[in-house]
Every structure is written in C-alpha cells, then in structure tokens.
Amino acid sequence: MKHHLLLGAISVALYAGAADNVFNIDMDNIGAEVQPTMYGLFFEDINFAADGGLYGELVKNRSFEFPQNFMGWNILGNVTLMEDGPFERNPHYVRLSYPGHPGRLTGLENEGFFGIGVKQDNEYRFSVRARTVDSDSTKITVQLVDKSSKRTNPVLASTSITVHGKEWAKYTAILRPDQTIDKATLRVLLSKPEQSADLEHISLFPVDTWNGHENGLRRDLVEMLAAIKPGVLRFPGGCIVEGADLPTRYQWKNTVGEVENRPLNENRWNYCHNNRYYPDYFQSYGLGFYEYFLLAEEIGASPLPILNAGMKCQYQNRPDDQLPLDSIRQYIQDALDLIEFANGDTTTTWGALRADMGHPEPFNMKYLGIGNEQWTEIYPRNLEAFIKEIRAAYPDIKIVGSSGPKSDGKEFDYLWPEMTRLGADLVDEHFYRPEEWFLKQGARYDNYDRNGPKVFAGEYACHIRDKKENNFRAAILEAALMTGFERNADVVHMTSYAPLFAHVDGWQWRPDLIWFDNLNTMPTTSFHVQKLYGNYKGDNVVPLTMVGKPVTGAEGQNGLFASAVIEKDSHRLIVKVVNTGYESQEITLNINGVDSPIKSGKVISLTSDEPMAENTIGHPDMIKPVVSPIAINGKDFTTMIPGNSFCLYLFDL
C-alpha cells in the first residue's frame, strides 16, 4: 500500500504539467516497416505447458516408459510389466491376466494430469495397441469414472473393445461422458478374466482438437494463441533446449516420425525449482517438431526453432565444463538436417520423412536460433562453427544468436559485439525485470546500431517486486516497454512474452501469459496487451513526439509512453498510449500531414482501479479491453486518459 501511495503522489505531481501532453503525429514522414514477425509467441514446456497442457493427450505415461514404470497408474489385480513390445524406443507394455478368482478384477486406472477433464456429451477417442496372449480373442472394458462422485454408479462413460489375434493391432473407441468433470479417471479392465491381453500406448484424446488432428492440440488453448495473430512462434523452449545435461537436452530428431516410437525425455523443469517439485513431469514428445511447425503454419506464424549449441546448461553445470570444439559436429549436423526436414524436397531424407508424416509441401522455415542464454567465450566459438556451415549450405536462413541471460551487464556487453562480429542476423535479448526497470526502458532501443544485427526480445515479463505474479500493473508496464519496440521497428524485428502457459495445479514459474486448468482457460491482462499489439501492429511507424522528443516516460513526460503506426491498405492510424501514473491526464493528439478531417475513430481501453488486480480461472473476464467510439473535430483530438491504463486510439483517415 505504501508503494501504491508513493507512486500516486508522484503521478499527482507530474499531472501539474499535463497541459504539455500534446503529441504531434507526423504523417508526412512515414517511418520504418513493422516486421510481420514483430509480435510473436515463445513456447517452452514449463508449467506442464505441453503434456498436460497444449498437447491433447489426457493419459499420463501412456507407454509405461517413466523411470517408475507405473507412475500415473493404479494397478488392479494381475498386471505384469513387459519390455519386448513392438516399438523399439518404447519397449514396455502391460499384460493383463487372470486375477486368481472370477469375482476379482484385473486392470489399470490412469490419473491423467491432475485428473482428466471431460465435458458432458463431448466425444473422446480412446486408442490402444493390443493383442491376445493365450486365446483367439479377448475383451477389455474402457471407462471414464468420477471416483469422487456420490452417485451409486460413478461411471461417466463406458465401452468394450474386442481384441483379435496374437499380432499387435491398433484399436479405437469413442467415449461420451454424461457429466462434465475436471478430475475424472480412465479405467481399463480385462472383461474376460480368463483370457489375457497385452496393452501398449494407451491413449485418450478429445475428438474436438485444434483443426481435428488426431495427435492433436487442445483447441481452446490454440484458439487463444491464434487470437494474438502472432507473427513468429519460437519453440521448443529455452532452458529445455539444453537440458540439465547433454543426454537430457531436447533432441528434435527424437520428436518426429511415428508417435508411438518417440522416446521419453526428462523435463529439466520437473526438479529445477525444488520448492515446486514435480517428479512426474516428462516429455512424451507427442508434441514434437512436426506438430510445432504445423501449429505455426496454422496460426499464421513464422516458425523459429531453437537448437542446442553443443553446450550444457551453464546454470546447472560449471560454466566452462563444455565439449571441445571438435566434438560438436553432430549438433551442427542436427541443424542442417532440421532445415532439410522443414524445407527440403521430398526426395531428400528428411524432407521425405516430413512428407510421410502428412506434409509434402515445405514449411518455409526462414529463421533458426542456436543456443539459449549462454555467456562464456565457448558460446560464440561454437556459434561461429554453426554459422559457417549453415551459411554455406543455406545462405537464406536467418540465424538468431543470444546476448545471454540478462538485459545488461558483463555478459551482455561481451556477447553483443561477438554477435556483430559473427554476423548473426538477430540477437535474442531476455529481461525478467522489476517495475523500476520497465519504467526506465522507454528509450532502450533509440540508440542501437541501425546497421548491426536486429533485436529479438525473446523473453520478457515485468516481475513486480516480491509479487512475481500476474497483475494489472505488470501488464501496463509491459505495454509501456512495447511502445519502444514499436517505435524502433527498424531495429526490433521480433518480440515474445515468456513463459506462455501455466497449469494452475502444476506450475514452477510465474508470471505467465495464459493460465489453464483441465477444462478452462484464463487470459491474463498481459495476454490482452499482447493481443492488442498483435492485432493492431500496423505496417509502418509514424513519428510521434512530445515537445520534439519521443514519448518514453522520460523526465517531464508525466509517466506517459506512446507510439504510432499506420495501416496502409485501410488508411487507419493507430496510436498507443500508456499512462503509468495513477491519475487521469489530458492528452492532445495533433495529426499533421492529412488532407481532410478525420472520418471516424474509436478507443480500446485496458484499465483497472486496482493495480494488483488480475483475472482468475473462475472469473477470467474481470479485466478485459473495452471499445468505445470517440468524437473527433478536424485533425486534433483531446481526451482524458485514465491513470494506470493502456489505450489504443484508432482513426480512419
């Protein structure tokens, strides 16, 4: 509260100069092009973002490959773990056999990811690879059960599958639950207890996935991503690209091909924060590089994969305990092969695999990131080797390097000149910083070299001191920083908030852009900021000044940040203004260089009386943008902008 009152007092003092809040917009000098990739998404498998989140699979440990093979499962009766299954890299399966008495049951129960969320009358596709053991046929019963139900019969849906023959085959069935439950259980029972069955890759997906893909993604989560209109999708993460060590690094080649034969990988986030430890957090790789590329294509984003630079995570290992340069050839080859997988002709090895998976046309990948948050001289040493070979084979691919884990300081100051020396096309900057930092960064990119590498602000979020949670104030300060991205569109070519997703029952890091549970989604205020920028990014920057200077929250600018862009085809001027003060202020927009009076306009406002307020999973729309018409007289517009607010003014010229 003291913090709030102090800032309020500052804003009152600043308001004395509000008569000077006159923004001059110069339509005669249209500026830099805003890149299509300017506002994008960064996906990392943290906070159960993939398995248990975006990936539609509802069964945990579906192939019994977790180090504790039955993690996620309850065993009923006579169940034996076997390890000579039909999939080389996932050899385990279970044998269901006679339980010793005809009145007993043999089977399995799966808990899902913090339960299994199902909706009444929706369809769920169960599938399993199965065979008989000692008979020509046998039968299994598949059920969705509400184990907490007070009903006499807690079964929500049930069906039977007859298994024929001793050769492995795939069987499917549809379940339609009669209730909506967020924490159901999947039960698979041996219906004929005297006739054994072998089961492998036990799976359950909603039929209604994004675009109906069988190995699909959760529709409501993808719809939220698509709503941002992202220009770029960075994947599969940052730190998980490195893993805790090299054997557990993310290896893209393990994530493509037959889904049932993609090997399990340890997720470094399952133990990285010991105070939020999830020993059942692994990567099934069901959501792999093919699915990432397909997702990017379907939401209209350029794919930006990030690959390991031949380095262990420097946070979890001694920074200089790394491979010698002559041992990273495999990592470089992985990069070359990935470009072939994404863009290669179907006559190539990896292009043919892409075609076999269902996409004969290339994915048109243009960008490739090498490394994540490394900082010693080993990183530019390795990156130089990558750049040399990639440029020789694929000169059109734009390579993204890294400026390390911080927004400034020793490592940052060392790596930026190295990225320039190596000729990186873009440099990935990360900043998870407190409120005070964001208030001082409005002019961050004003003096960057216009002829050097471009900027990818690849991971950023405002972390309110001692809070580190999603709240309205953090989102407003992020919106303020983004006016600087936009005004410097000739330097800043890509941006993405991070992290993207978090499960309310299984998170390790916050704040996050989108929260979800097994049935619902919750857009944060930061999500609304990203969506507003993504939906109204414009085509070119329009100069906007206040007393001859950019509006960057500088001294004398009353806590205001602003930028402007033009949509050329629609002749629409978009002015973004952020008031980081806590009191309303009068602003005037002088639109210079237009031949006739403004036709019409509207304002989209994002504001709240309580700075620490935020949406919740139960009330996801408490804070959301509000659209209102505005009256315009000629070419000037004067209005009051609320305190602690982000407003977009749209003018049809």
Description:
- The chain is an alpha/beta fold and 653 residues long.
- It is built from eleven helices and 35 strands.
- The strands form seven sheets. It has an eight-stranded parallel beta barrel, surrounded by six helices. Strands 3, 6, 7, 9, 10 and 12 form a six-stranded antiparallel beta sheet that branches. A six-stranded antiparallel beta sheet has the order 26-29-30-35-32-33, with helices on one face.
- Strand 20 (426-433), helix 9 and strand 21 form a beta-alpha-beta unit.
- Helix 5 (329-343) crosses helix 6, helix 7 packs parallel to helix 8 and helix 10 (472-487) runs parallel beside helix 11 (525-535).
- The longest helix is centred in the middle third of the chain and has 16 residues, at 378-393.
- The protein is globular and about 90 Å long.
- It starts with a helix and ends with a strand.
- The relative contact order is 0.14.
- Mean pLDDT is 94; it is low at 1-18.
Overview in brief:
By secondary structure, the protein is α/β, with parallel strands linked by helices. Helices cover 19% and strands 30% of the residues.
- Work out the strand percent: 25-35%
User: Which residue ranges are poorly predicted, with pLDDT under 50 across at least 5 consecutive positions?
Assistant: 1-18
- Helical content stands at 10-25%
Number of DSSP helices?
A: 11
| First and last CA, distance | 44 Å
Largest sheet: 8 strands, parallel, barrel
Rg over CA atoms, rounded to whole Å, is 27 Å
Number of strands: 35
